[in-house]
Amino acid sequence: MLVEDRLDIIELIAMHGHLVDAGEMQRIEEVFAADVVHDLTDLGLGTVTGLDLFRTPDPGVEHPVGHHVTNTVVTADGDDRALVRSQGIGVRADGTAGSVVYEDVVERRPEGWRIARRRVLVRRRPLT
What we know:
six-stranded mixed beta sheet, Nuclear Transport Factor 2, Chain: A
C-alpha cells in the first residue's frame, strides 16, 4: 500500500467527525460507501446497513457535539482494501466525554476510499 493511500485513509477517517459535527449529512457519502454496514451493537443499536443512519438520525439517541478520532492504524489487506483501527473521543454538550474504538474496513471504490464496514466498541473500563 502506498503512503498516499494511507494518508487518504487517515483523512477519510477524520472527515467523519468534521461532517457529522457540522451537520453536513448530505456529504456523508464522501466517507461511507452507500452499502456501508454499521455495527452499533455495543451501543445497543444493532446493525444498520446504508446511509439512512445519517440522513434520518434517531431522535432518542444522544449524539456528541464533538467527534474526535486519534491513534489511527492502517493495515493493508490487498491493494484495494485496508483494516483500520482508531480511537474516538465524543464530547457531549454537558462537557462529559466518552471513548470508543472504531474497527473499519475501508475499500477503494470508483469514487475513492470509503468505509465499507464500521464496528463501534464502547470503552467502559480502563485496560480492557
